[in-house]
């Protein structure tokens, strides 16, 4: 039986670790001074594509930002 004292505060707050780490990363990026702030904010953007697979082969991907 686990003690409630061992539960991380972000879990107690109802967050996942990914949500907690994203909040922390945004706070750090916003605390930076220029020109480092705009450089860090530009790296925050993630580009990815989603492909639907049919019969073991990918169909044409759709780009999402």
Query: How many strands?
Result: 4
Q: Look at the structure and give the CATH class of the domain at 7-44.
A: Mainly Alpha
| Major beta sheet, strand line-up | 1-4
Estimate percent helicity.
40-55%
Task: Please outline the major beta sheet.
Answer: 2 strands, antiparallel
The structural class is alpha+beta
Rg, nearest Å: 19 Å
Mean pLDDT over all positions: 81
Strand-helix topology:
Elements: H1 9-12, H2 17-31, H3 36-44, E1 48-50, E2 53-54, E3 57-58, E4 62-64
Antiparallel strand pairs: 1-4, 2-3
Organism: Durio zibethinus (Durian)
Pfam families: ATP-synt_Eps
Protein name: ATP synthase subunit epsilon, mitochondrial
Structure description:
This protein has 65 residues and is α+β, with helices and mostly antiparallel strands. The protein has a domain at 7-44: Atp Synthase Epsilon Chain, Chain: I, CATH 1.10.1620. The protein contains three helices and four strands; from the N terminus they run αααββββ. The strands form two sheets. A two-stranded antiparallel sheet has the order 1-4. Strands 2-3 form a two-stranded antiparallel ribbon. β2 and β3 (57-58) form a beta hairpin. The protein is flat.
């Amino acid at each position: 039986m686990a003690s409630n004292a061992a539960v991380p505060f972000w879990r107690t707050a109802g967050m996942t670790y990914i949500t907690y780490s994203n909040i922390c990363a945004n706070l750090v990026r916003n605390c930076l001074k220029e020109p480092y702030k705009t450089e860090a904010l530009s790296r925050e953007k993630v580009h990815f594509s989603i492909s639907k697979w049919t019969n073991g082969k990918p169909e044409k991907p759709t780009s999402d930002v």
